[in-house]
């Protein structure tokens, strides 16, 4: 089974690409979704112990937690030391299940693949990309997002040009959905050896 890492900077369209891989019949492990599940489960007591007052009724309150870690590198590192191993274990279990089921290809959607040294976990890398102006427009349209916060997030991420240089595949999300979907189908066909990916729709 080939493991494809899917990544890209904030606002580049990674979530949309992940959905399109699923539509093409490829199992996708979404790290962000895994964090949401873990915050309501295994991670919650660990996060509360490290950051008292960050949970409500046994579930991590992301707003409260954000107040405690945003702009505090030491606190963020402490949180990552709790969450990253749990997400990785969740992803490993996902890969084991699909490998046992005979899948030819599986996708690990990892937002900070390059930044967290995740290249050793995947066989190939696909990067979603769009022009900087479009990226900025998309991100600033998000509720609660400010230019300052956007710049702070960007500063922590590997530059888009570097990600594209290191990628095996680049998925341009600046065009319409059909163009993005066609590119994803090309990648799936190449990696699975199938002319056309099966659809789960």
UniProtKB/TrEMBL annotation:
Pathway: Cofactor biosynthesis; coenzyme A biosynthesis; CoA from (R)-pantothenate: step 5/5. SUPFAM superfamilies: P-loop containing nucleoside triphosphate hydrolases. ATP binds at residues 11-16. It is found in: Cytoplasm. GO terms for molecular function: ATP binding; dephospho-CoA kinase activity. It catalyses: 3'-dephospho-CoA + ATP = ADP + CoA + H(+). This is Dephospho-CoA kinase. It comes from Aquamicrobium defluvii. The gene is coaE.
